[in-house]
Write a structure and sequence with these properties.
- The structure is a single chain.
- Strand 16 and strand 17 form a beta hairpin.
- It is built from 12 helices and 20 strands.
- It is α/β, with parallel strands linked by helices and 416 residues long.
- It is globular, with a radius of gyration of 22 Å.
- Helix content is 32%, strand content 19%.
């Protein structure tokens, strides 16, 4: 769309939170503009479809807590297909990578860890999650790897209180056409200015002025929905400075989760719907074989393992994946796969990571990050959600809440 220099509300970031806020504001009759650094909408939700054997979700891929997830209703309204089969991690093959009896031993260790974590979630002080792994457990490396899948970080960097507050109904479904595609479709009719990374936000006067390479946007209010790693980096100059916000963002860092996808040339050689770990005694990727029946392998890497692999590019991800896959599936089978997509979320300048976790002792910083600044500057995004952080539905909910705060403080004025 053409650049607009004056609007009622500028929404910074066209991810799930920004899109939700913009819809809510537009429904209230406000003139709203989404300001997006990328050339696409969706943020950390991104589906690759053109030329692919099926939809590849490079970012978020699961409707977590699907039974209460607002994206489920939106999917129905937009004609998207929901797959409600059991998620792969709940039907992981016990035969792949585990000797007889080992999976049961690991399950007991994992259950003990989670029971201890749950019992300590309200304790003082707020301890790192690593404190609740049984001393000397042989499963520490596998528990650490799993932590990097759901938090993007090792257990010693994860707040027990934060994890304890997360609401999980245990219902996890997928959008067949892609979660990122759903979010993009939801925002397709909204006014967005692309390729407009924000460099400064001046909230000192009667109107908020947002500086971009496309020009300055003047608004009666602004909603900032940017990832915490971007905020904490100081990439945006706030005037006056918002040291408290940047401090909160720095203690709610984005962890890292990356994906590598392979195309199968002989899908009949692979068991359908199998999920397994690449290793059980060291930091490892996990593997989803033929998800939704598609002829692909989805490889998942988290935390420091993913960060180290990003330094070596796609070849480093592929090398580790082939090594681990060959161990479990055999060289003849693995010879018939070709890499088709790989993510590098830490090196993405507009994300700098995947999803947030609170550092030990800093779970309450989510409320600090979410709090409005006066009557003109508001914040949203998954990191602002105390109970649904790290998810697209958490981002959506905070976007709606921020928009309602704006509406309550900034009534529509005819001709304004």
């Amino acid at each position: 769309m053409s650049f607009k220099s004056e609007v009622d509300v500028a929404v910074i970031g066209a991810g799930a939170a920004g899109l939700a806020a913009a819809h809510e504001l537009a429904a209230a009759g406000m003139d709203v503009l989404l300001v997006e650094a990328r050339a696409r909408i969706g943020g950390r939700a991104w589906t690759l479809r053109e030329g692919q054997p099926c939809a590849l979700d490079l970012g978020c891929g699961w409707l977590h807590s699907a039974d209460v997830n607002p994206w489920l209703q939106i999917a129905g309204e937009l004609g998207f297909t929901i797959d409600n089969s059991t998620p792969p991690w709940a039907r992981r093959s016990r035969d792949i990578g585990f000797a007889p009896g080992e999976y049961e031993d690991f399950s007991r260790a994992a259950d003990l860890f989670w029971d201890r974590l749950e019992a300590a979630k309200d304790a003082e002080p707020d301890a790192p999650a690593s404190a609740f792994v049984e001393a000397g457990s042989r499963w520490i490396n596998l528990l650490e790897s799993i932590s990097t899948y759901y938090s993007g970080a090792a257990l010693d960097r994860v707040s027990t209180r934060d994890i304890g507050r997360y609401v999980d109904t245990g219902v996890n479904w997928r959008v067949v056409e892609g979660y990122g595609a759903l979010i993009a479709a939801y925002g397709a009719d909204l006014p967005v200015v692309f390729n407009a990374p924000v460099s400064a936000i001046d909230h000192s006067g009667a109107r908020v002025k947002t500086d971009t390479p496309r020009g300055t946007i003047s608004a009666r209010a602004a909603i900032v929905t940017l990832p915490t790693n971007v905020l904490a980096s100081g990439a945006i100059a706030f005037r006056p400075a918002l040291d408290e916000k940047l401090h909160a963002a720095s203690h709610l860092p984005l962890g890292l989760a990356d994906k590598l996808f392979f195309r199968m040339h002989r899908p009949e050689d692979f068991p359908k719907g199998v999920h397994f770990f690449g290793a059980i005694d060291r930091p490892t990727a996990s593997y989803d074989v033929r998800p939704l029946g598609c002829p692909i392998l989805e490889c998942y890497f988290g935390g420091s393992l993913a960060a180290d692999l990003e330094k070596g590019g796609a070849a480093a991800f592929e090398s580790l994946a082939r090594k681990q896959l060959t161990k479990h599936l055999g060289a003849d089978v693995v010879a018939n796969i070709t890499p088709i997509a790989c993510t590098f979320w830490q090196n993405d300048p507009f994300a700098r990571g995947s999803y947030s976790h609170a550092l030990p002792g800093h779970a309450d910083e989510r409320l600090v990050l979410a709090a409005p600044v006066g009557d003109r500057l508001f914040f949203a995004g998954e990191a602002c959600s105390p109970e649904h952080f790290s998810t697209a539905h958490g981002a959506y909910m905070t976007g709606i809440e921020a928009a309602r705060q704006v509406i309550a403080r900034t009534p529509v004025v005819a001709g304004a």
